[in-house]
Write a structure and sequence with these properties.
This protein is of the alpha+beta class and about 120 residues long. The chain has a domain at about 1-80: GMP Synthetase, Chain A, domain 3 (2-Layer Sandwich), CATH 3.30.300. The chain is built from 4 helices and 3 strands. The chain has helices spanning about 1-10, 40-45, 50-65, 80-90; strands at about 20-25, 30-35, 70-75. The longest helix is centred in the middle third of the chain and has 17 residues, at about 50-65. The relative contact order is 0.14. The mean pLDDT is about 80.
Length: about 120
């Protein structure tokens, strides 16, 4: 199932190198996460979702033969440039140490005693 979706997506995509399919398998179900480049989302989903629905139909048939429910989730993967920028930003940012918590400065307000509420009916 995973290989089929990967093949279809790579065939449709302009950037097939960014197509990735992750399979999360449960006892009676399988979730396939299809990740594609942002510019390929339209091609993968298709007009009115027809391509995505066709892939889901194929998965439903294959899953039925194995007795499993298959779900296809189409996820936009970050572009290579955005991913590289994120890595650079993580490496460049110095780690900040947490400052120890200090006692709060007095504000001039004191906590009042709790006032018990009577069991009387409210006038409104």
């Amino acid at each position: 199932m995973k290989e089929l979706i990967e093949y279809i997506a790579k065939t449709l995509a302009d950037v097939p190198s960014q197509v990735r399919v992750d399979e999360i398998e449960g006892t009676s179900s399988v979730v396939l996460e299809l990740r594609v480049a942002p510019e390929d989302m339209g091609r993968i989903i298709g007009s009115k979702g027809r391509v995505a629905n066709a892939m889901r139909t194929l998965l439903r048939v294959l899953g039925g033969k194995e007795g499993k429910r298959v779900t296809l989730e189409i996820v936009e993967s970050p572009t290579a440039e955005a991913a590289a920028e994120e890595v650079v930003a993580e490496d460049a940012a110095p780690e900040e140490e947490e400052a120890p918590m200090e006692e709060a400065a007095p504000t001039g307000f004191e906590v009042a005693e709790e006032v018990p509420i009577a069991d009387e009916e409210m006038p409104f």
